[in-house]
Amino acid sequence: MQKIKILVVEDEKALVKSFRLALEAGGFEVATAESGLECLRQVRSECPDILVLDVMLPELDGFKVCRLLKFNRATSHMPIILCTARGSEADRRRGRAAGADAYLVKPFEMKDLLEMVQGLISRPVLTGT
Questions:
Q1: pLDDT, tens digit, for every residue of 11-52?
Q2: Reading across the β-sheet that carries 29-33, which strands appear in turn?
Q3: Helix and strand element counts for the chain (H, E)
Q4: Which domains are present in the chain?
Q5: Residue 87: which of 58, 107, 63, 70 has the closest Cα?
Q6: How confident is the model over 79-117, as pLDDT tens digits?
């Protein structure tokens, strides 16, 4: 059975390491990107199953990246977790409007991220007609 591939987009190196360790321990394959533009390139080349996306990124912020991916027919099915220190209700609304499937506010426990990932990958995929 092939592992679920997760692309973690985070520009803070210590957090990237924490994400990688937790997700790999959870049985996932992990790829990383450090900017919004790098994320878009890697989505095309890596075809991840799920995206863990920081909001405050160089080049393109996570809200814009999320919107670009969710409003593109080729990538709209990919679950996206916005992961950010920006926890206001206005930011959460902005995340929902961009198409995010989930919103996780830093700091958080890695078990919460793992539970969120499990919940998103186990839900039925809805296809448009």
A1: 999 999 999 999 999 999 999 999 999 999 999 998 999 999
A2: 29-33, 5-9, 50-54, 80-84, 102-105
A3: 5, 5
A4: 5-110 (3.40.50.2300)
A5: 107
A6: 999 998 888 899 999 999 999 999 999 888 999 999 999
Taking the C-alpha atoms of residue 39 and residue 8, their distance in angstroms, rounded to an integer, is 9
Structure tokens, 13: 């190196």
Structural tokens at position 57: 């990124």
Chain-centroid distance, C-alpha 9: 7
Distance of CA 1 to the CA centre of its chain: 22
109-114's contacts with Cβ under 8 Å and 24+ in sequence apart are 110/18, 110/19, 110/22, 113/19, 113/22, 113/23, 113/52, 113/81, 113/83, 114/22, 114/23, 114/26
Q: Write down how long the chain is.
A: 129
Reading the block at residue 66, the tokens are: 């999320």
